[in-house]
Recover the amino acids of this structure.
């Protein structure tokens, strides 16, 4: 079936799905950033046991040493990357446990969905998954206050095989959904959840502690078990449309609103290198050096960590001199006004930074 124009309604795709013109434009459909897992500014591809394995996606867990997560080049046709979560244990969750791979969407980017009103719009979430374990897998959507929750479920039918999944969700007509630079929608993909964190799939609830749906497969129960995910899309529509691909530099800039660093992509934080470092010149009148602007204006004033060119966290290097503690003064979402290094030299300072304004 070829792509066809359905009058003035929209476009019908080869799989029979209709992308309505009113519900979803041809571009800027996907509200999720880095859904194809291409960008990993933090880890240079290394595995992590907490936090962000790739940009914009974080693992939340109640127990440590149970899993690892890492950007992977194992991917379905048309994609280059995924994230793999690997069980490091044979663990049965207690009732209050939850382990979830999660991304948060800024309120500005979902304000048009009108959630929390009578005009709430339907969305469809689509994604590719692969696991060594078959069975029922689940997840949940939350608002910022975690008092409106929608558990969902899907089935992985064949082990170690990429499968495409879609979940259509009627927009929530109640609750408070933020439309500013805070969390608009959080979506999590569970890989292990205790009994108190499971709810009924397919309905909105105000139970705060729900992270998945009844029947969730326990990835952590099998040491070495794997779960891959990529191609995550959330769009305003009653059915899924093909994954929206954005140019790499566009997606990287989108990611830098929430996290950025001076190190090259592929260079880990704390590496001993001058490449990409910033040099600023000393102003003897104020005992400090001029500040700088971030590459992309950030969501909010970030948490900023300095690194000397030798890789020492919390410090910058005095040009042609020692390394000492660094202070970034009058810090905001666009940058900072000045930089000061204790026992400063008379020439200037140089170093790296990482800046996080994650939701």
């Amino acid at each position: 079936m070829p792509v066809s124009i359905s009058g003035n309604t929209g476009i019908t795709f080869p799989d029979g799905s209709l992308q309505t013109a009113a519900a979803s434009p041809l571009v800027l459909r996907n509200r999720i950033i880095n859904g194809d897992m291409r960008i990993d500014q933090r880890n240079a591809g290394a595995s992590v046991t907490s936090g962000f394995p790739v940009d914009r996606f974080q693992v939340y867990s109640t127990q440590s040493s149970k899993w690892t997560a890492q950007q992977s080049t194992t991917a379905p046709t048309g994609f280059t990357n995924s994230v793999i979560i690997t069980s490091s244990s044979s663990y049965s969750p207690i009732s209050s446990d939850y382990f979830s791979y999660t991304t948060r969407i800024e309120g500005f980017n979902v304000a048009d969905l009108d959630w929390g009103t009578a005009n709430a719009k339907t969305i469809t979430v689509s994604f590719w998954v692969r696991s060594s374990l078959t069975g029922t897998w689940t997840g949940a959507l939350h608002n910022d206050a975690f008092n409106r929750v929608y558990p969902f479920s899907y089935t992985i039918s064949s082990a170690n095989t990429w499968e495409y999944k879609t979940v259509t969700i009627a927009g929530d007509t109640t609750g408070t959904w933020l439309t500013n630079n805070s969390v608009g929608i959080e979506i999590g993909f569970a890989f292990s959840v205790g009994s108190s964190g499971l709810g009924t799939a397919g309905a909105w609830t105000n139970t705060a502690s729900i992270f998945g749906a009844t029947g969730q497969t326990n990835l952590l129960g099998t040491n070495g078990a794997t779960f891959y995910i990529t191609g995550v899309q959330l769009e305003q529509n009653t059915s899924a449309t093909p994954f929206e691909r954005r140019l790499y530099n566009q997606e990287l800039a989108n990611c830098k609103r929430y996290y950025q660093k001076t190190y090259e992509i592929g260079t880990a934080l704390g590496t001993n290198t001058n490449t990409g470092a910033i040099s600023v010149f000393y102003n003897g009148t104020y005992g400090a050096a001029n500040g700088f602007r971030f590459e992309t204006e950030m969501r909010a004033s970030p948490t900023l960590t300095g690194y000397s060119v030798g890789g020492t966290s919390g410090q910058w290097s005095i040009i042609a001199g020692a390394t000492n503690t660094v202070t970034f003064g009058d810090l905001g979402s666009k940058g900072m006004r000045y930089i000061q290094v204790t026992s400063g030299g008379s020439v200037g300072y140089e170093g790296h930074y990482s800046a996080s304004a994650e939701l």
